[in-house]
Amino acid sequence: MVQGAFLGIQDVQRLLADPSPAARADTAAKVARAYANENEGGPALSAVEKDLAQAIIAALARDAETLVRQALAEQLRDSPQLPRSLALRLARDVAAVATPLLQFSPVFTDADLIELVQAVSPLHQSAIAGRARVSAPLADALASHAAEPAVAALMNNRGAAVSGAMMERALDRFPDSRALGDALAGHPGLPPKFAARLIAQVSDALRDALISRYQIPPAMAADTMIQLRERSLLGLLGDGAEPPALADLIVDLHKRGQLTGTLLLRSLAGGDIAFFEQGVSLIAGVPLHNVRLLLHDPGKRGLQAIYQRCRLPQDHYKMVEAVIDLARGFDFLRGTVERAEFVEVATAMMLADFAMLWDHQEQRWLTRRRSRAQAAQRMAAA
Fold first, then answer.
1. What is the pLDDT of residues 6-29, one digit of tens each?
2. For residue 215, is it left (φ>0), alpha (ψ between -120 and 50) or beta?
3. What's the pLDDT tens digit per position in 106-129?
4. How far apart are CA 68 and CA 97, in angstroms?
């Protein structure tokens, strides 16, 4: 056996006298280093030595202490001789153990990594996204399934084969992510058609760079920022805020001139009747109790009157009427499940019957809103 490659008399004595994780971690590092160094021009190991090393490494990989497994992974992260089965075992370990291998190990196939993307944590996914080379199929899996930090890391990785379609999918999944916006804004392959979507997400410096680089007209930039800000404001409400918090938010929006007609219509399209009612009350200057009676008047005269008083777009009236009619069949006092059911049905109706009222981005927003409602129902059922 190569001198000093594995367990010398001092190593054995220490393991006998010192049962601490630190002692086993040092042993793990020594054995793994000897095993890995052979691939870097170090002393060659015989077949027997290799078998022994693999047996020791496999035993240490099952150690209960994270410190031991972490020391093993750090030493073996670059080794092409690491058994693939052992690498896959460690890849599903806690992030401190798995991430060095996921980012650097050459033994994983694309198929391995694609399967792992859908089964591991955001920290694990970020390590995969940071590999020196990320193939198109792996990048597609990350853009489709990984968490926001990993997708941002992917877009920052110049060694990743990222397409315009993947960038669009990432933007659709995380439309308000500052980290993703910054990563995409600096990407040399960013298609011009996505630049306007990013200007409300990135820093002032990056925003100016985007406007200059893609020659975005100032009016378009301003309009895009307003639309994205309105969608962000609706995101504050979640699946329905408590009445006092909602009232305070609406009053604040009105003071800042942000309680616009389009914001009211988007809230209704997203299934938030309470926001629409209180917003209409404030804009029209009519008490909330009266507004509710007018909006839900079965004869529709009240709805027509309050709608006209708020000067909302006439071409959206039929949509508003349909959503208000739909709301009468739901008891929102029953809680989030009932609200989620309403949101799912309302957004489905928007997409099926009133799609012409919304541009492509708004339709994607409605689709995401519907998906969140469906997920809420599944979680409640589980």
1. 555 455 555 545 556 776 777 767
2. left
3. 999 999 999 999 999 999 999 999
4. 9
Cα–Cα distance for residue pair 279/259, rounded to 1 Å: 7
Tokens of 266: 């988007």
Task: Please state, in angstroms and rounded to a whole number, the distance separating the CA atoms of residues 17 and 3.
Answer: 23
Closest CA to 38 of 22, 28, 49, 26: 49
What b/e string do you get for 163-197 counting C-beta neighbours within 10 Å, with b at 16 or more? eeebbbebbebbbebebbbbbbbebeebeeebbbb
367 to each of 321, 370, 371, 376, how far by Cα in Å?
Answer: 21, 5, 6, 14
CA dist 253 → 145, 261, 273 (Å): 35, 12, 17
pTM for this prediction: 0.53
Contacts of 40 (CB under 8 A, 6+ apart): none
What one-character DSSP code corresponds to residue 355?
Answer: G
Contact 135, 161 (CB under 8 A): yes
Q: CA-CA distance, 188 to 190, in Å (whole number)?
A: 6
Tell me the two tokens of residue 169: 């999918």
Q: Do 182 and 210 touch, CB atoms closer than 8 A?
A: no
Structure tokens at 83: 């058994």
